[in-house]
Amino acid sequence: MNDFSTPSVFSLHDADPQPGLILDATGSVLEGNLASHHLCQNANLTSLFHLLPINVQALVKSSLEQERSIENVEARIPADTTERFLVWTFVPDIGSSTVLARARDATDEIINREEATRSNRLYRLITENTTDLISRHAPDGRFIDATPASWRLLGYWPEELRGKPLEEIFRGDQVVQKLAETRNQLRDDGYATMTLEIIHRDGSRRWFEIASRAIRETYTGAVIEVISVSRDITARVESEENNRRLADELAHTARLATLGELASSIAHEMNQPLATIVNFASASQRYLKSARTNPECLDRVDDGLQKIVHHANRASEVIKRLRAFLRKGQKRTAPIALNEVVSNVARLCQWEAEKNKVQIRENLACCAPVITADPVLLEQVLINLIRNGIEATVEARGEDNPGPHSQIAITTCINDQNETLIEVIDEGPGLDAQGIRQMFQPFYTSKPQGLGLGLSMSRSIIEGFGGFLDARPAATGGLSLICRFPASPGHKNRTSNTEMQPDE
């Protein structure tokens, strides 16, 4: 039988590094080059046909019928270790009804593409489901893009934000100023954070913590884009505000308790000027009756009235101090003269100290140190420390001991590190190292009727002023309580070493 088929125009070369096959119209392999045989052998395949895509018959048929080449057809070659990928091109020869199939190894390309697809999908899932707002901005602040969290946090969908300036979306007090400061910081440092109160689209106020990073042009360094992550911290801010209010309430309650415990001392300080006023008023009345016969009595009346005014002012000052001590509200820090506060507290505690045969000795720095604090809260701390010293001293001596007066020394000074110190030293029984560690813990107390809040709150108050309250054994055998205030930045207290040391 004579063969009248037209010979194929295709020929294969064993020097070709790319696999090549000649296929008939049914997709069967007629011939393969050396590269295809090596690939088949390395992949442990039984036939060259297994190198081809699974739909090779349809591809060959379409190529011949449509008289066109079909390119970029992927084929996955299974392997024991790492899969390989080939990308095939099918070129038809209509005259011979054959197809040239040539392949290139695209393993790395396809694996990288699939990995990129997985990464993009993961990124999309993260950005679409994160509770924080991730946004892109132009250098002038206009939105380029944003994650769907923008609807929950701002009340705008990402499509609504595109092209809008930040000032239009982030409405609120001082927003414009803070955004301008942030842009300057991004330009200088490349990174900026800010805490901002904004108005939500529904009118509610919310607090945001925003971290931004500038994306710069490689060669010029100019900012071309800004990436920001915005987090709603409204709940945290409200919690901190509630904690602050609770702390103020607790401090106010402690001041009320302290006032009750000092009632006798306060009454004594009030009775003294009132009794003096009564005495001078009675004497003035008697002198007025004798003024007609003895004009010199008018001078005594005038002197008595002046003293009445003096002691009335003194009583008024006591009441004023008490009202300030009981004041409820936010801390009001200001520069205060430390020695003056210490003297006022010592005078307020004087009667209780004398009742317990304890002498309060003041060793005040000659340089008159000034610290920044709330005078009322500082008075509360010093009253706690002095009364703690009085109770400890009485405990060590015994309540029924008729011996000589004990002492509590309260000292102000500035040390070599330019720190301002307030030290209260008692003659009590003292504490061991474990007791000193425990004494500042809330609700820890060695007193049968104590709440254990005085020293704990005192430390918190001092720390709120930027200082620290600590304790150590004293040379007297008792305890030394030290309030330490660091030097203000840029401020140097000038004093000699003799001024910095307490009197022995």
Secondary-structure topology with pairs:
Blueprint lengths: L19 E4 L5 E4 L1 H9 L13 H11 L3 E8 L6 E10 L4 E8 L1 H23 L3 E5 L5 E4 L2 H6 L3 H4 L4 H4 L5 H15 L1 E9 L5 E12 L6 E10 L1 H28 L1 H27 L7 H29 L8 E4 H11 L1 H6 L2 E6 L6 E4 L1 H23 L8 E9 L5 E6 L7 H6 L15 H11 L3 E6 L5 E7 L11 H4 L4
Parallel strand pairs: 12-14
Antiparallel strand pairs: 1-2, 1-5, 3-4, 4-5, 6-7, 6-10, 8-9, 9-10, 11-13, 14-15, 15-17, 16-17
Helix pairs in contact: 9-10, 11-13, 13-15
Percent of sequence in beta strands: 15-25%
Helicity range: 40-55%
Radius of gyration from the alpha-carbon trace, in angstroms:
45 Å
Q: Pick out the low-confidence regions.
A: 448-452, 490-504
The CATH superfamily label of the largest domain reads Histidine kinase-like ATPase, C-terminal domain
* Termini Cα gap: 133 Å
What's the level 1 CATH class of the largest domain?
A: Alpha Beta
| Number of structural units classed as domains | 3
What does the average pLDDT come to? 80
Oligomer: single chain
Total beta strand runs: 17
**Largest pleated sheet:** 5 strands, antiparallel
The rough form would be described as elongated
